[in-house]
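just leaving the lab so this will be short. what follows is a protein written twice so to speak, once as letters and once as structure tokens for the fold. can you read through it and tell me how you think this chain folds. anything you notice is useful, everything is just below:
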Amino acid sequence: MGEQRGVQPVVGAVILIAIVVLLAATVLFMANNFETEQRAPQVATEERFYSTFNTTTGDPTPYVSFRHQGGETIYRENVRARLTVGGQTYEDLPLKGPSSGPVTANENLTYDLSNTSMCANSADSFTVRLVHDPSQKLLATRQVKIRDQINVEVSNNSVSADVPYRATVSIVGMAASAKTGSSKIGPDTLNARVVVNRQSGSKDLTPWPDGDKRDAIEGPFEDNINRPIRSPPLRYTTSELPPNSSVSLEMRSGKPNRWDYSGDPDDTRTGNIYGSPVKSAGQSEDRFWVNSSNPSEGNLILLQDGESVPTYGLAASHQRSLPDILGSKLGPDGTLNLDNNDVAVLYELTNPGAQPENAPDPNEGGNPDYNDAVAIIEIEPVPGAATSEPGVLYC
């Protein structure tokens, strides 16, 4: 009997140890399983929407970029982006850049949205999510409103929009010139520069006549663009500009002392011959720059679709008139026929300090006549880019 009682405590201890070991193994297995299958990285992100343009086709490609703002490392191969719009979900959006590797603080995960219908859909919003595949947990989610209209504003002699945009500046006609003989016309020299104002500062761009937007105006003759009869429209398109950036066109003219009439074709409309300014003869008058940064500048007038073009003094017989330059963009009732996002700019480049109310009688010649140069500024909004309104995308 004594020997049997001695065995019982030993057996009990063995059983207790076995139970403890089994419980520990079970807890360890469950903890490892939970850690492996359900834990997602703890990370803060910031989303940004933008578009880039194909330089060949001009088509935009929209992107969403998730910026790692801090926290644990994300691995590219373990995450994917998902977009839902109008009840349709787009899985596995194409990842821009490497398909694998770590993403740490201040680095980006960028996804191509061009194969989604976010801008072709009638929905007024969409949701984009960043998913951690191993855990099926969301690392980021963002609902974004969609806007399909823009506001183009004309103020302080400049044009701006409340969405990201590109601006195409076209000089569609020039008439600054003087009669130097019975049938000879001496064109003024004209120089032009596109001025872009962003929050970060102002930049002058000089794409004409050589196509190099970065070179400064060398001189009135070297960078002369005035070919009153045979010049095609001069065009320049900016890169993408952020919301509320402004674009303007500044111009100046000069009166040369002499012109070369050899080699220039006749103006078949009037029978006049237009000469080319001779640099070596210099200029008798170096005129002012029309300063678009001056809100009270009266030597240019900006007009939008449906606005009336005032009737200024008659153009000289050798000059193209405003109706001649504007063509179909000017309706028979004297109002502009422009696209909603276009602005016409009329220039008086002869008289400094000009004001429209000082124009001569419509039946009389004289200055200011605002036909020395005419430009059109076209605003092209960028689809798939964030607007100035937080959480709103233009489509």
Q: What stands out?
A: Helices lie at 2-38, 322-326. The mean pLDDT is 85.
